[in-house]
What does this fold into?
Amino acid sequence: MKVYAFVGPSGTGKSYRAQMVASENNINFIIDDGLLVKDNEIIAGESAKKAPTKIETVKHALFLSKEEKDEINKALKKYKPESILILGTSDGMVKKIASNLGLPEIEKIIYITEVATQQEMETARRIRVTEGKHVIPVPTFELKKDFSGYLLDPLQIFKSKGKGQKPYISEKSIIRPTFSYLGKFTISDTVFRQIVEYIANKMQSIYKVIKIRVENYGEGPIIYMEVSVIYGFDIKESLKQFREISKREIQKYTSMNVVSIDVVAKNIHIPENEENIKKI
It folds into this structure.
């Protein structure tokens, strides 16, 4: 396995440019802040950016625990990458990561100054300091489960490498770690109810939401709903459609991973014209 490294000070845009550097060096595997990423998929590890303090973040990023090392090594044995890119803030850090994981010596170190201008690095640093935003080099849907309830934004990058060259397309996600000085946020259960009530109001087959219960777990909320279905519609299909739309919209507007949604048809609503027909 050929081992490469991408080095630069914290907040200068390494994760943002990681896939570009990997692509230019024909590398499909990246180690970044505790994660092992293959192309656009997390295949092992837990993001150091989930740690409650900066000290814990460093420990995760260096793979100091046996469990973290074993998980990464298991994945490396499974996928057998020909080359890998390690991200770090210094030569010493990337060498320490390689050593802790039992990887071969680093063949080449690429520095952030080789791929980014001083102005670009200063802009990235300013955003890190003032907005607390960190980039992880994978699409948002890859992070939903691990970062349920965090602020997540998708970021798609498209770069052409010139005429006749394969374009570089990459998706990344922006998060605010738990240790960000900007603080925490909470989403009330009322928000979930308002979202599903709005959806029910838009659907012809659902009369109203009678009851909703939300249980929050580490991976995200589990939602139970009871609804009134309008007479004349396929009940099973109506509940399935309502459940799928509700899950999609809740995840879209709250950035939370919805573990499951159970929808129960509690009663049938008969519109007035149907009642009039029965009387006739």
User: Anything to note?
Assistant: The longest helix spans residues 235-254. Residues 155-163, 178-182, 276-280 have pLDDT under 50 and may be disordered.
